[in-house]
Amino acid sequence: MNQEVTQAVLVLEDGAVFRGRGFGATGTAFGEVVFNTGMTGYQEVLTDPSYHRQLVAMTSVQQGNYGITDADAESSRVQVSGFIVREEARRMSNWRAQRSLADELRAYGTVGISEIDTRRLTRHIRSLGAMRAVISTDVLDVDELISQVQAAPGMEGANLAAEVSTSTVYQANEVAGVDVVDPRFRVVAYDFGIKHNILRLLAAHGCEVTVVPSTMSADDVLALEPDGVFLSNGPGDPAAVRSGIAAVTTLLATDTPVFGICLGHQILGLAAGASSYKMRFGHRGSNQPVKNVEREVVEITSHNHGFALDAESLPQDGPFGRVTQTHVNLNDQVNEGLRLHDVPAFSVQYHPEAAPGPHDARYLFQQFCDVMNATKGKA
Q1: Domain range list for the chain
Q2: How many of the other CB atoms lie within 10 Å of CB of 245?
Q3: Which of 65, 247, 314, 370 could bridge 218 with an S-S bond, Cβ 3.0-4.6 Å?
């Protein structure tokens, strides 16, 4: 590990300043500053496209102690704009490790900052909300950085799914290393920022998956003759993903089974007539309690979202009939799931594929298969 000390500073748009030590790449990185409460899983966090254009602070003190391994990546590269930790591990210790956290950040030009009070930062965000911020090892003048960050774009109105989505159609086994021996269902997955573990779990449930760009039209998707359509996670403001909302609206009118998660959940809700809003500081971590109101059970779930659907806006008589809430967050009562009763579509706000996180919600992939099977039986 490089022992040379590089000064770094984190500056928030409200003028809050945190000075520390730079690690990873050098430079200046802008984004929305957020916090993640997971105890482990920093590599999966780093490579989750839902964190595009965000500076992620980990609340667990030490990061990097088990290194980086290619098998744990959730996409093809580091996706966060910057990484914020209390302590960077001085050495990695795991038989699977292929390189260090700092080496991985350097390889993708990602600026990191350590040796700051992440507890104070987290409390600040919880009190005042997620906001624009900057990490820099090049510019240490606070007034200059405040001026720059206040001119940077925010999250509201940002269609970031288009920035992280694939530009070409591909088969899931080409990137996720999974082959379906006996495929039972043909699934088209919209890539709004899809994670590899989603593809692995769909394959494990007998789904042969074709991944398509976030902007693909419903007509082009239907031409692939899917048994069902999956709407992936992703970054940014769901209301700005207009092409995705339009495509899902068309798909719902054809009675094609649809399953959405995270951003896909929000897009499905908007197509069904609900409205969305930006949360104060969002849910990010692998320990969020969610109640399944249909099954009357509590699940511990993995989350990464800063927008949500307004539960009060779920229509009783919308363009596709009645929509009901199926899941609710027990910490703050935020909507976590919905079901359309007149068409075969459902979604959840959290991440049932986890990576990282618990496996409480993996039943939802089987639920999707059951819906596709029932729909095929009616054909």
Answers
A1: 6-150, 161-378
A2: 18
A3: 247
pLDDT of residue 2: 47
Query: One of 262, 303, 327, 369 is an active-site residue; which one?
Result: 262
Under 8 Å CB-to-CB from 81, ≥6 apart: which residues?
Answer: 29, 30, 31, 52, 53, 54, 55, 110, 111
Catalytic residue status for 262: yes
Residue whose tokens read 């990484």 = 83
Question: Which two tokens mark 61?
Answer: 């003190």
CA distance 18 to 62: 18
Do the domains at 6-150 and 161-378 have one common CATH topology? no
Calpha distance 66→39 (Å, rounded): 12
**243 and 214 in contact (C-beta within 8 Å)?**
yes
351 an active-site residue?
A: yes
| pTM of full prediction above 0.85 | yes
Q: Are 137 and 56 in contact (CB under 8 A)?
A: no
> What's the pLDDT at 3?
56
Options 196, 208, 351, 369, the catalytic residue: 351
> Mean pLDDT per 10-residue run, the chain (379 residues)?
78 97 97 96 97 97 97 96 96 96 98 98 97 97 96 95 96 79 92 96 94 98 98 98 98 97 98 97 96 96 97 96 98 98 98 94 97 83
**Cβ atoms of 84 and 116 closer than 8 Å:** yes
Tell me whether residue 369 is one of the annotated catalytic residues.
no
What are the CA-CA distances from residue 114 to residues 25, 156, 346 (Å)? 12, 28, 41
| CATH label, 6-150, candidates 3.40.50.20, 3.40.50.300, 3.30.470.20, 3.50.30.20 | 3.50.30.20
Tokens 């995270």: give the residue. 262
CA angle, residues 282, 283, 287, in degrees to nearest 5: 165
For 161-378, the fitting CATH number among 3.30.1360.70, 3.40.50.880, 3.40.50.620, 3.30.360.10 is: 3.40.50.880
